[in-house]
Amino acid sequence: MLQNTSVIVILLQVMNTVIDEAAEDVIDFFTQPNAYRSVLILIAAILVAYIVSRFLAKGIILLAQWVALRSESVSDDAKAVKLRQVETYLSITVAVVRAAVVAIVAYVVWRLISPVSSSGAAAIGASAFFIVFAGQTLGMVLRDITAGVIMITEQWFHVGDYIKIEPFLDVTGVVERFTLRSTKLRSLSGEVVWVHNQQIQAVHVTPNGVRTVAIDVFTRDEEKARSVLQEIISTLPTSASLLSKAPKITKVERWGSDMYRLTVVGQTVPGREWLIENYFANAIKEVDEGKRKKADRVFIYDPIVRNADPVAEKKFKRAARIKKDS
How far, in Å, are 47, 84, 85 from residue 68 at the CA level? Predict the structure, then answer.
């Protein structure tokens, strides 16, 4: 107990000494000729650096917008991904350039106007203050930056991707901006969502920003079934935020001795799957509503709704190692 008390007393004495000498250095600085003018010069230099950094940031933003337009017009998926990567790096560069310009100018000007010699106690005091300030104020920012660097290095996602963020239930949208500190999303409802990078535990990235949904129907009259399906498809709205690609009959195969299996595939924005899974499927069911005899029905059974992402099917085909019956 006495030893702990002695240590605390010694630490308090050291802190008092450091604070006193640091305060003396500050007083000495302001008692020098033109000290206040030096402070004004420092403030003016920081303001000028901030304005210059804004102009540099605007130039980078314009370049990023040009890259975004290029990525939207390119038909090659590989080139589009590379352009999105460039857009992501430019988005990150904006914040880095602004912070770097202000910090470098402030440091250079301070070195020019500050006293050449300073006591070790003042340096220790400044270091102690920085440690406390960094631990309490900058800790969160540093954790955000660390998480951002990891996500950028591992290429979790890029600007323009549609993502869902864990552990949040409803934080989804298109990535509009991605910096070392935060991520900006635009949801389907138009809301802007900002997320600290350190809060992102996992990310669901939707390939190409769309969900591929398929519906299988069974019929005995192929021509009539085609006609009914095309009529229902014509009522579905298509746009960038609804059905990105209208459903289309992609496959017709003989099923048994007297039936046909028709596969309809469409692509929707994540969150709009109900247009196919509910509206389209229910419209198919309503065609034969009230018809009890299967012979009178256009579609013999209820439609089968399923996900139909081609890449996922290839991966699961590789993963499913089912032995054939001998």
Answer: 31, 7, 10
